[in-house]
Structure formats: C-alpha cells, structure tokens
Amino acid sequence: MTFLNRKDALFILLLAALLLVLLPMVLEPFRLNLVGKYLTYGFVALGLVLCWGDAGILSLGQGVFFGLGGYCMSMYLKLEASTPEATKIQSTPGIPDFMDWNQITELPLFWQPFHSLPLTLIAIPLVPSLLALGIGFAMFKRRVGGTYFAIITQAIAAILTILIIGQQGYTGGVNGITDLRTLNGWDVRSDHAHNVLYFINAGLLLGCLLLAQYVRRSKLGRILVAMRDKEDRVRFSGYGVADFKIFVFCFAAALAGIGGAMFTLQVGFMSPSFVGIVPSIEMVIYCAVGGRTSLLGAVYGALAVNWARTSLSEAFPELWLLALDSLFILVVVAFPDGLAGVYRRYLDPVLDRLLPSLRRSSLAHPSAVLPVEPVVSAE
Amino acid sequence: MAPETDYLLAVEGLTVSFDGFRAVDDLSFYLDRNEIRVVIGPNGAGKTTVLDLICGRTKATAGSIKFDGAELTRMREHEIVRAGVGRKFQTPSIYEDLTVFENLEISFPRGRSVFGALAFRRDSEVSDRVEEVARSVFLHDQLDRSAGTLSHGQKQWLEIGMLLIQNPALLMLDEPVAGMSVSERVKTAELLRRVIQHRSVLVIEHDMGFVESIADKVTVLHQGRVISEGSIAHVKADRKVVEVYLGH
Fold first, then answer.
1. What is the pLDDT of residues B5-57, one digit of tens each?
2. Which residues of B touch A376 (CB under 8 A)?
3. A356: number of Cβ within 10 Å
4. Can you tell me the distance from the alpha carbon of B178 to that of B47, in angstroms, rounded to the nearest whole number?
5. What is the overall mean pLDDT for chain B?
6. Is B236 left (phi over 0), alpha (psi -120 to 50) or beta?
7. Which of A260, A336, B63, B82 could anchor a disulfide with A66, C-beta 3.0 to 4.6 Å?
8. A237 touches chain B (CB under 8 A)
9. A220 touches chain B (CB under 8 A)
10. Mean pLDDT (chain A, rounded)
11. Does A186 have pLDDT greater than 70?
C-alpha cells in the first residue's frame, strides 16, 4: 500500500491496539461506552484535518453534519420503536410519540424513507454531504472563503438548531429524539450491545482514518495543501479550485454524519444540543488540540479533550467551559500544531534514533505522525 | 465578424474599468505563432492588467480576446489554462509546503478533475517529465527539497518550470528577472531563450538590456493604451515612447 509508509502503519496499528485491545480490557463497560462516545467526535476531527488542516477551510458548522447523521439514525430507531402495539395509547398509534403530542396525525413524508435500514445507512453519509454540496456550491463557486465562510457555517449551525427546536412536531424539538430501543430487532441499550457497538465504532473509525489517509496521499491531498498556500497558482495550473473545496467539504460532512449516527446508537438519543454553535466549535477544538495536520492527532485530540471534560465536569462542573477555552487559547498560542506538533518536535527525532529502520521508509525531512509527503523515493 | 486570421492571440477593443477608471482602454494587438512579444511601459500603464485579462483573472468590461479560435473572455481561469495559456506571476508563486518534485507534479497536465486527482498515479511518464523539466530549470538536484527553502531566483525558476511542464502554446511572464542577482539574471535569460522556442511568449519587463536580447516585437503601453508598437529600434526612436517611458 503506497499511501502508508512503515511508520504510518506502525502508528495506526498502535491506535488499533489501544482502541480494540487495551481499552476494552482495562475499562468497565460504562467507561468503555463513554470512550465510544468520544470516538464518534474523532470522525468529525478526521474530516476537519482534511478540510481545515490541509485545505485551509475552517468550518464552524460541523455539528450540523454530525447532527444530520445522528438524526437520520435516530429517525430509523424511533420508527422501529413506534410500532402500533407499542404506541397504542396514542390518538394516532404507529407514529413517534412526540408527533402525537403535537397533534400530528400522519407520518411526514420525509420520515418515510427511514422505515428502511438500507436507506437509512445510505442517508447517514449522503444527507450531510448533500447539504455540504449545496453550501459548498453556493460559497466556493462565488469564491467566499476564510472568515466569511466560517461565519456562514456558524450561522447555518444556529439556523438548523432553531429549525429543529421550532419544528417540534417533526423533529422532537429541544428534547430531541429519545426513547430509542432496537436496531433491526436488536436491543441497543444492553451492556452487550454497547460493547459490540464500541467495536463497530472503533473499526469504522480506523477504516475512515485509512480512507482519509488515502485521500491525503493522493494527488488530491497535495492539491488541497497547494490551494491553502497559493490558490491562484492552483487555478492557473488548470484546476477548478471550487470543485476541490466542495469535494473536501462534502467528504468531511460525510465523515461527521457517520460519527453522528454512531453517537446516536451508543448514547441512545439525538438532540439539537449536539448540532449548534457550541458543539461545532468544540469539534474544532478537538482537532486543534490533537493537531490539525495529523489524522492520528485529531483522533487522540477528540479522545483526550472529551476524557478531560468528563473527569473535570465530574469534579468541578462549573469549571469545564473555562478550562476548555483556556486549553484552546493555550494550544493556539503555544502549540499551534497541537499534540501532533509536540510529538513531531520532541518525540519523533528520538524515535528515529532508536529505530533507524523506520526512518528509511519515511524520507529524510522531519516527519509527521501522518505527514503528507512524497512516496517518490520508492521508485 | 472579423475574418479568421492565423494569429495565435488577437486582442481587440479590450477595455476594463475599475469604478470608472479605465485601466485598459480600447486596446488591440495581435500575436503571431512563435512570436516573442515584450510589453513595456511606465508603472500603472496597465501591463499586468492585460495579462490578468488574458488569463481570466480580471473580467473585461468590453472587447474580445481570441486565442487559437476560442473566445477567452467567456471562459473561466482553469479552462483558459487547459486551452494552452500559461501565466507566471510577478512574485514567485509556488507551493512552499510541498517539495520541488510535488510542485512540478501538480502542474503536470493530467488528472486535473477531482476524481482524476484521486486516481492519479505517479508513473514513469510523470517522473521522467518532472526530472526533464527540473533539469532545464537547474533544479534537478533539489527535487526532494521543500520549495519554501529555495532562494528567490530558484523559486522563479521553479515557477517557470511549473509552466513548462504544462507545455502551453502561449506563455505569459510578468517581470521574470525582477529581483534577481546578476548571475541569476544571466542564467534566467539563457533559460528563457531556450523555453521560448516553439511557443508564443508575452513578457512584461523593465530591463531594457533583457528586452533587446529576446524581443521580436515590442508593444509600449501608456495609460491603458498602445502608444507604439514595432521592432526595438522603431520603438526606441519613437518620440512619444521616449517622452513617457524611456526618457526617465
């Protein structure tokens, strides 16, 4: 596989061992389920590495895509939980309870596809990508970028939250979609199900990481970096710059959607509190803390920040937001490349000295955890 | 309809105004195949704007730019590039975070759509061509070096190399020797004399010694209009040119 050198492969294996062997061995089921929840943000962070780290497109609205993926999954689960027998006390049996409370008597058309599991699985990456396609088309074709783009994505996050809360009868409103039970007949609430879902989630995350690495190592990945650097030069080398931005934005949206769906499955509900401005900015912080130019860094960042959040908010609930913001400022000021940057600067040279056989395959210049670098020396 | 001509580039009645200021005013000129044309003129004459208009960076207010039968004023930047127009910017415009090899590879004219770029393979055709071009711009022993660490002159050469690998029918260079040391300037002149063969070239340059050494024809711009055009000797003898430009 030309898109992985030996060092990349080693570090991905280490992550796989941590997620698939070590953590399940040492953590009690409750904590493991929490880690599974943290990892769902890893999907978003992977997308942000490509979109923000590589292409320089800062989106402050990734929660929108995370939420859409999560809502797709929760709509399916809700429909399965709303059988006519289970809802026979409602005035209209067979529709989700919150619809009944809001005097809706018929399942809305946009809910219909979510009776089908295959359609739901397709919708999870597709719906976020389609929205990203629309936004990307409108913005990038008009050459809207930088801060303006970030502000617009943030506005979209606010709009979607307001829309979901306002349309209570169709969306479950501020409470979200709750009381989810089974996935195709399989109870997702048991400890055993949580355990299985944890492994599915971790496996999917590793798969998405490899896919993202493939994209970064293709010429497309180098064009993204080139665009961040000198957009005009890319344009005047014959590339339609907007198309590349739209692609990477859609790709990041699809990853976020998968993360959202896995979140819903493991946490058991979806609500607008995972969609809006604050969660969207937090997702950017995970990526920044981990290192926005490193896929592995982004996954570790999502893990570490969420772990810290749980520990801190258990001990000092009021301090958490303050701590998160201080962390972000600290990272921006002192470690602009996040955890991955610290690794590259201090640990990587040591590792190269200890294990010279790894260095041979990762070229001479200072290597990254998962750097975008040429494979040219192999030929 | 103007009669079909054999000109590679035909600019007619080209006008662009920015908030009422006419940076280029009813400009017409014709460029033959394999002709080397140098555009000179005082600062603010509209030289760079003309290149911007041809490559689509600036949209014309009026007029037409015909290139090899295609109307460029209606095309988008990357389509103009694909039609065969290459543009070098005044300050070196390269990808500092990528290596010299990758800079040249991105400019290789293949896999320029999103999915083409995903499927792009670095085969021997690509690496041979990259090495060949790197050799011609004196960078063949710097292929793995990060482009940001090159000297100013080397960056200029790299950008010229990035254009060469596209093999454009029309090459546009904006002050290619500005800011170079004397030895770099000599090497660049030698490089340009080699690369301008078999293609048309439109150069903006202030260095009159350099202009004399490469130009077939010179066009003098002043306040967005052509005030003189012809051979070096003709232009230098033109009273108007001496007045607005050469006399300084």
1. 678 999 999 999 988 888 999 999 999 988 899 999 888 888 999 999 999 99
2. 99, 101, 122, 127, 143-144
3. 9
4. 15
5. 89
6. alpha
7. A260
8. yes
9. yes
10. 90
11. yes
What is the ipTM, given to two decimal places? Answer: 0.89
- Please check whether residue B109 touches A, CB under 8 A: yes
Q: Chain A contact for B58, CB < 8 A?
A: no
> Which tokens sit at A208?
């998405």
Burial class (CB in 10 A: 0-12, 13-18, 19+), A60: buried
Q: How many CA atoms lie within 13 A of A255 on its CB side?
A: 30
Residue B120, CA distances (Å) to A219, A222, B100, B113 in order: 6, 11, 18, 10
A4: left (phi over 0), alpha (psi -120 to 50) or beta: beta
Alpha carbons A248 and A47: distance in angstroms, whole number = 8
Looking at the predicted structure, is the pLDDT value of residue A203 above 90? yes
Provide the shortest C-alpha distance from residue A255 to chain B (in Å).
18
Query: What pLDDT, on a 0 to 100 scale, did the predictor assign at position A269?
Result: 94
Tokens of B85: 């127009």
Question: Is pLDDT above 80 for A191?
Answer: yes
Count of C-beta atoms within a 10 Å radius of residue A134 = 12
Cα separation, B25 vs A154, whole angstroms: 43
Measured between alpha carbons, how far is B101 from B134 in angstroms, rounded to an integer? 8
Closest residue of B to A217, CA-based?
B118
| A26/A37 Cα distance (integer angstroms) | 17
CA dihedral A339, A340, A342, A347 (to 10 degrees): 120
Measured between CB atoms, does B210 come within 8 Å of chain A?
no
* pLDDT band at residue B186 under the 50/70/90 scheme: confident
> How far is B104 from B95, CA to CA, in rounded Å?
10
Tens digit of each residue's pLDDT (9 = 90 or more) over A292-319: 999 999 999 999 999 998 988 888 888 8
Q: Looking at beta carbons, which residues of chain B come within 8 Å of A377?
A: 144
Q: Does B44 touch chain A (CB under 8 A)?
A: no
Cα B33 to Cα A35, A306, B192, B193: the distances in Å are: 66, 64, 17, 16
Q: Would the pLDDT of A157 be above 70?
A: yes
Residue A230 touches chain B, beta carbons under 8 Å: yes
User: What length does chain B have?
Assistant: 248
Q: Which of B93, B117, B162 sits opposite A223 (nearest CB)?
A: B117
CB A211 within 8 A of CB A254: no
A232 and B105 in contact by Cβ < 8 A? no
pLDDT score recorded for residue A358: 66
Q: How far is B242 from chain A (nearest CA, A)?
A: 35
- Which domains, ranges and CATH numbers included, belong to chain B? 9-95+152-246 (3.40.50.300)
Q: Do B78 and A244 touch (CB under 8 A)?
A: no
Q: Chain B contact for A247, CB < 8 A?
A: yes
Question: What confidence tens digit (pLDDT) does each residue in B156-183 have?
Answer: 999 999 999 999 999 999 988 887 888 8
Q: How far is the alpha carbon of A233 from chain B, nearest alpha carbon, in Å? A: 6
Give B56→chain A minimum CA distance, Å. Answer: 9
